[in-house]
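User: Hey, quick favor. My workstation is busy. Could you predict this chain's structure for me?
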Amino acid sequence: MNAPVITTEGKRLLGKLLKESREGLGLSLDNLVLLIEKQTGRTLSKSTISGLERGNAKPEWDTLSILASARYIKKETGSPYATAELFEIACQSQEDRAANFRHAIGAA
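Assistant: No problem, here it is.
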C-alpha cells in the first residue's frame, strides 16, 4: 500500500473547506488568527492560513493539528474535523472523490 500523498486537487479542496468555514462564521483572517490562538494556545500566521485557503501552501501535519484543535471547521454533521480527516482531504484526487461518492450511494 502506498503512503498518502498531498495532491494539488486535495490542497484546493482543503483550501475551499477552510475558507468556507471561516467565512461561514463571519471571520476575517485576522479574527481567525485570534480565535485559533484563544482556542489552542498556538499561533498560525495570517499568511499561512491564506496560503492554505488558496490551495497554494502544502498543509503540514502540525498546521492541520492546530486547525483541527480550533474546532471551527465542521462537517455537515456539525462535528469538527480531526487532523487525520483534514490530511485525508489534502490527499484526495478527483478519482477518490468519485469513488467515495459511489460508495456513499451504494453503487459499484
